[in-house]
Amino acid sequence: MKKYNILIILLLGVVFSGKSQISVENSGGGVVPYTDYTGIDYLVVFDQITTNSKIEYTGEGTTFEWYKFSNPTTSISNQQEIWPDGDTGYLLVIDGTQTITIWVMDYSMTTAKIDDITFNSNDENACEYVILNFLGNIPPLSYQTSSGVIHFIDRDLDISYTTQNLSSTATFSCETNPWITNDTIAKTILNSNSAQVPAPLVNTVFNVSMHDRFGDDLFIAPVVVQSITYQAVAVKNKLITETVTRDAENEDQRPDNVNFLEGSAPLDIHFCAHPTDGVKYNQWTVYKDNQFYLTRSSEDFRWTFNDFGHYKIVLVSSNQQCSYTDSVIVQINESALQVPNVFTPNGDGINDEFRVAYRSLRLDNFQMAVYNRWGNKIYTSTDPEKGWNGKIGQRDAVAGPYFYYIKAEGTDGKKYTKKGDINLIR
Fold first, then answer.
1. Which contiguous run of DSSP H or E holds residue 214?
2. Which of 117, 113, 149, 148 is nearest to 130 (CA)?
3. For the CA atoms of 189, 195, 196, 198, what is the dihedral angle to 10 degrees?
4. Burial (Cβ within 10 Å: 0-12, 13-18, ≥19) of residue 161
5. Looking at residues 352-365, what average pLDDT do you find?
6. Rounded distance, CA 264 to CA 287, Å?
7. In the prediction, which pLDDT does 17 show?
8. Are 55 and 102 in contact (CB under 8 A)?
9. Residue 20 predicted with pLDDT over 90
10. Please, how many CA atoms are within 13 Å of residue 85, restricted to the half-sphere of its CB?
11. Residue 174's beta-bridge partner residues?
């Protein structure tokens, strides 16, 4: 015999001091009393009510009258105990003043029977989530207060299925697929014999475990049912970029890592689409300063951004029913060109060459010439990454002033003409 005792302090508009007790018994079966449900003092749940099921008041008192919620004027017992019916409310009046309210549930009458699971696979929201419809008999879980207010109690659902997720450990790259296929569990509640879960990204079956607080506490195995195979329609992708790096120290905002997306042109970027299994088509669209710039239809593409501007690269991955969009921003900043006025070619690794500091120059439109004091050209360059090392032929140039003339153009169209003197210090 299972027997549970509950100790409570009653708050029924007037505070009654002292302690009151009830006990519940269910010979050969299980029973759980609760005191945390709104509008009643006790919710008593039997796994199955039999002639041996009993509720007994064991607190202090002299007279006892039991009434049903449905007939609060006709006493059904003047003993301390009753043998209850299922899905029935009881009022216990003690000494004519103190009242305890109890709702009784026969859990065996609430067992769900699921015959089939159907999907709203053609729903307009099928790209975002799937609605599972449960066909069969699923009685509601509920209780009533003495005033007739019905409170419904949720049935919990653990829905396991297979999908794809981004790896939490992989380093994203064009060579590595970031998606992994794994099992997941969606925890939700039953809503009008249906449930909603995030749309899976691969074909899968849904394993549904339906349970509730009462069944768990009574150690009753939950209702488990499996669907037929669901044909996935949802898609996702992961847009990954890899930028070609440069190491010229005199270039401001140069791309010094593969994730670089803003700074000095040119930016040579590899764009990679890593779609989930359901994707059939990939469409790349590039916008420059909010205007259409170019489009590509391939899984990957590479582009060199030479021109100043704000670029948005949009990837749309799709199949016949669903699509998913990802995007990144590439920013080519304004050009700049600065010329030093001194350099010290002494081999210490600091300022050993006469080089310009630049950003976003057109590398095919750069000219620099250096002249000595007599106007003889002693050095030329068409590469802003390179500079004069302070030698004329194989000999060190003498210290003193030299003169330069530089012409260049930025990726923003800005033209530069700079001339002046540079001091060589040894």
1. helix 213-217
2. 117
3. 80
4. buried
5. 94
6. 19
7. 29
8. yes
9. no
10. 9
11. none
